Amino acid sequence: MRTRAALRWLLGERLGVPAPDVPLGTGPWGRPRLASGTGPDFNVSHSGNCVLIALSERGLAVGVDIERIDATLQGTPAERAALEALVLSHREQSIAPAARPAFPTVWTAKEAVLKCLGVGVAEHLAAVSLEEALVAPWPVARGPADAGGRPPQDAPASGRRIRVWMEGALQGFGVQACTLAAPGGYAAALAWSDPLGWPPGMQIAQSRAGASTSG
């Protein structure tokens, strides 16, 4: 309830309407959106005592995820191996574990990417490949970014940029991502993309028709 109230307050401030009048709805796979179809895109994640809310700028689609690190590392070695087989792409599985981003980073960044697109998470985890870049989340000059549009105006200064490759049914969708600073014991990530650059006529792009695109 507190999360929804906070979301309504933030959206109401952006839209210039009272929080109770914010027209919340859901899209395919239960992704929250504005029922009016106009206004900023947004996304929400919560884990433990933490809530993460992102509101977009300039028509970008956004996705966020925050997770307790211990929750992503639970299980026996066999259970962990089975989970990694589900989550990691073929590209990632071919890389030595020490060269891959930490698993909590992989998990949160992939969730953020898939929530940004508004598609089912479980069935598309292995279609996303990630590599943690040894640079800031975005260029200081804020020039054109590589495939996903320009970074937000008030982009956070902390975190690490994540290189994203989309494969299979997601090929052609340009998405950018970065890790975010999070409270101790948590991992968090943000993803953003410009829907105007998505491949036309594809089922995923069509499923987002009517989603919030301005703001």
Protein architecture, described:
- This protein has helices spanning 2-15, 69-72, 77-87, 90-93, 103-117, 203-207, and strands spanning 24-26, 32-34, 42-47, 50-55, 61-68, 128-132, 161-166, 176-180, 186-193.
- The protein is built from six helices and nine strands, in the order H-E-E-E-E-E-H-H-H-H-E-E-E-E-H.
- The strands form three sheets. The chain has a five-stranded antiparallel sheet.
- Strand 8 (176-180) and strand 9 form a beta hairpin.
- The chain is globular, with a radius of gyration of 17 Å.
- The chain is an alpha+beta fold.
- Mean pLDDT is 81; it is low at 138-155 and 209-215.
Mind sketching the topology for me?
Layout: H1 2-15, E1 24-26, E2 32-34, E3 42-47, E4 50-55, E5 61-68, H2 69-72, H3 77-87, H4 90-93, H5 103-117, E6 128-132, E7 161-166, E8 176-180, E9 186-193, H6 203-207
> If strands are numbered along the chain, what order do they take across the biggest sheet?
5-9-8-7-6
Cα separation of the termini = 25 Å
Indicate the overall shape: globular
Q: pLDDT average, as an integer?
A: 81
Helical run tally: 6
Strand coverage percent = 15-25%
From N to C, what is the helix and strand string? HEEEEEHHHHEEEEH
- Rounded Rg: 17 Å
Structural class of the secondary structure composition? alpha+beta
Please bin the fraction of helical residues: 10-25%
**Main sheet record:** 5 strands, antiparallel
- Overall number of strands: 9
Uncertain regions spanning at least 5 consecutive residues: 138-155, 209-215
